[in-house]
Amino acid sequence: MAWLWVVFAVAVGCLLAIQPTLNAEVGRHLGGPIVAAAVNFIIGLVVLAALALYIRGGLPSLGELRSAPWWAWFGGLIGATFVSTAAFLAPRIGVSAMFASVIFGQLAASLLLDHFGLFNLPVQEISWQRVVGVAMAGAGVLLVSQN
Predict the structure, then answer these.
(1) Which residues are CB-contacts of 59 (< 8 A; sequence separation ≥ 6)?
(2) Are 88 and 111 within one domain?
(3) Are residues 51 and 113 in the same domain?
(4) How many CB atoms are closer than 10 A to CB 99?
(5) Is residue 113 domain-shared with residue 41, that is, in the same domain?
(6) Residues 46 and 117 in one domain
């Protein structure tokens, strides 16, 4: 059953490869990557709000909203930064180089998040195998970025 989740993740990854290209095209017509990201988030807000209301059956209470730690609310800002940056970078360096770089950054940061158990994550110590894996991803950035 776990392999189905892996297939699902790969399918979503394929969609993510398309997203910066679509947003760059929207930005080309509407005035840049920030406008494209805003449109992207408006569409996403409408779809996700409808799904959330359907699944949850109503809005969260003020108490529920306050129960999340202050730092948890930065996810939206990080998402906006990624979407607008991806729309900016994809036509300049290519989708492959952009995603290879993003994934390398994610892997490098995730080693520290795991090792120190940041943001309430369970601690997973850094091992040489994980460091080598991240270094290989860094080498992949160099290879994918070559023209």
Answers:
(1) 53
(2) no
(3) no
(4) 19
(5) no
(6) no
| Sequence-distant (≥ 6) Cβ neighbours of residue 58 within 8 angstroms | none
Same domain membership, residue 70 and residue 42: yes
What's the rounded Cα separation, in Å, for the pair 102 and 18?
15
Q: How many domains is the chain partitioned into structurally?
A: 2
Q: Choose among 121, 118, 89, 117: nearest CA to 102.
A: 89
Are both 64 and 5 inside the same structural domain? yes
**Enclosing domain of residue 125:** 94-147
Q: What is the DSSP string of 65-99?
A: HHHS-GGGGGHHHHHHHHHHHHHHHHHHH-HHHHH
Residue-level pLDDT, tens digit, the chain, 147 residues:
789 999 999 999 999 999 999 999 999 999 999 999 999 999 999 999 999 999 998 889 999 999 999 999 999 999 999 999 999 999 999 999 999 999 999 999 999 999 999 999 999 999 999 999 999 999 999 999 997
SS3 at position 61: coil
